[in-house]
Specification:
By secondary structure, this protein is mainly α. The protein has nine helices and no strands. 67% of the residues lie in helices and 0% in strands. α3 packs across α4 and α4 runs antiparallel to α5.
């Protein structure tokens, strides 16, 4: 693509994939970055909100995440799913934002309480019973469950995003699902 070429040709009805958009951005196509941003911004905000527990912080993290991505150009090569690439950045930026906000706004005891509340933040799409059951899981088990079933990442993508072996991801997922099956609040989701 040339710098002025459109992201999508008029004859094409399929939207360009992330790899095509990245190639276009590498060739100075600003519109391609806009498409990539709009495609992934909601996922980034939702993920950041899971880590921060704060809507405003999540929006700040989203901006920082896309600035981080923009700084990779030109010359960026995507070797995995874009969500897999962005996940560690969103996680780290969210943790930093939460810590910074905590230092500015609260005492150490209040910060610990906020961290506990934020670490149990569950997407609103879940019922309150399932949310309560998920909140009882360890952070590692909850993270794998949410990445697999909310963010729809594969085992390999979760392993890459969390920087743990695939076997560990499978073990965590297995143990998390077993714990949820035993929890009476979540049992209805497994009996269908």
């Amino acid at each position: 693509m040339t710098a002025n070429a459109p992201v999508q040709s008029p004859e094409s009805h399929d939207p360009p994939g992330d790899q095509q958009l990245i190639a276009a951005i590498n060739n100075s196509d600003v519109a391609a970055f806009d498409v990539l941003y709009h495609r992934h911004r909601d996922w980034v905000v939702n993920l950041a909100h899971r880590f921060t527990g704060d809507e405003n912080l999540a929006l700040d993290v989203m901006q920082e995440t896309f600035l981080y991505l923009l700084r990779k150009f030109p010359g960026f090569k995507l070797t995995a799913n874009l969500k897999t690439f962005l996940y560690p950045a969103v996680k780290n930026l969210s943790i930093a934002a939460r810590q910074k906000a905590g230092r500015v706004q609260s005492t150490e005891g209040e910060q610990q309480l906020l961290e506990q509340l934020a670490s149990t933040e569950i997407p609103l799409a879940f019922s309150s019973d399932l949310s309560a059951a998920l909140a009882n899981l360890s952070l590692e088990h909850r993270e794998v469950i949410l990445l697999r079933f909310v963010d729809d990442l594969t085992m390999a993508e979760i392993a890459t995003a969390t920087n743990v072996p695939t076997g560990t991801v499978k073990s965590r997922l297995h143990n998390a699902l077993a714990a949820l099956r035993q929890d009476k609040r979540a049992r209805d989701f497994f009996e269908s």
